[in-house]
Amino acid sequence: MRCDSPLFTAERVSCTVPSPDGDRTVFAGLSFAIGRGEIVDLVGPSGSGKSSLLTAFARLNPHASGSFALDGRDAGSFTPQRWRREVAYLPQKPILPGETVADAIRLPFTLAVRADARDDGRRGGLVGRFARLFRDDAAAARDMLPDARIRETLDAMGCGDIDLTRRPHDLSGGQAARVSLARTLLTGPQVLLADEVDAGLDDGNAAKVASIMAYAAGRGMAIVRIRHRPPDGRASRVATLADGALAWADAAERATGATDGKETA
């Protein structure tokens, strides 16, 4: 099943991992495509390589190879940092460094400010380097992402009970997953690779997270979701990874139990 106007494409994607019995091929020669504003659900048995595939797309998997492009531009023309900003991987187990929830959500913005300061230093010699020393990264990040915008996003995800001054390690697993999702969405990637972000949520909060993702897709973001829940009506297509191959189906067919033959995107 092909995507007529792909935003993101992957060709000849393979993953081989070392094991005590020798190298093991998880999958080989896979192709994938997703269009702007589309949600694709990636499903399949545990251990079939779904997370390995998403980390390959994000260029985070050292055991994977393939040819990737974003909006027709080859991944090799991006720096790794720029690619991961545009093709963002959201892990199942969130990592939230910082003293507060607000700090954790602003982290990508703080890092961007620091990167700009490094560029200023390289361009401006000693003057730029001294300017960087006096730059208040945290204040600049707050200007870029005010508390009000963070609060609005968290409230929409059912996180009205999470105070922005709360320590991240005091959050429950479900709360941490939603905070991590909020952080990623607020950075505005073109492609979001979501690895079971609703796994620890009750049905009500999972529905809120799905609504937020649908809203982001409506604004042009392409979203790939690894899911084990029943279909929620948000995805247009379903890709099943099993035995090293992808089988594609329309989401409506999947919901009614129909099957589709194995084919590439």
Range of strand content: 15-25%
Low-confidence stretches: 116-135, 258-265
CATH topology of the largest domain: Rossmann fold
CATH architecture of the largest domain: 3-Layer(aba) Sandwich
Protein name: ABC transporter permease
Domain ABC transporter: 8-265
GO molecular function: ATP binding; ATP hydrolysis activity; transmembrane transporter activity
Keywords: ATP-binding, Hydrolase, Nucleotide-binding
Name a few traits of the molecule:
265 residues, alpha/beta, Rossmann fold, four-stranded antiparallel β-sheet, 10 strands, globular, disordered C terminus, P-loop_NTPase, ABC_transporter-like_ATP-bd, nucleotide-binding, ATP binding, ABC transporter permease
Can you offer a commentary on this structure?
The chain is an alpha/beta fold. It has 2 domains: 1-93 and 192-265, 3-Layer(aba) Sandwich (Rossmann fold); 97-170, no CATH class. It has helices at 50-57, 80-86, 101-133, 137-144, 147-156, 173-187, 203-218, 251-255; strands at residues 6-17, 24-35, 39-43, 64-70, 73-74, 87-90, 191-195, 222-226, 237-242, 245-250. The strands form 2 sheets. The protein has a 6-stranded mixed β-sheet, sandwiched between helices. Helix 3 (101-133) crosses helix 4 and helix 3 crosses helix 6. The longest helix is centred in the middle third of the chain and has 33 residues, at 101-133. The model is unreliable at 116-135 and 258-265 (pLDDT under 50).
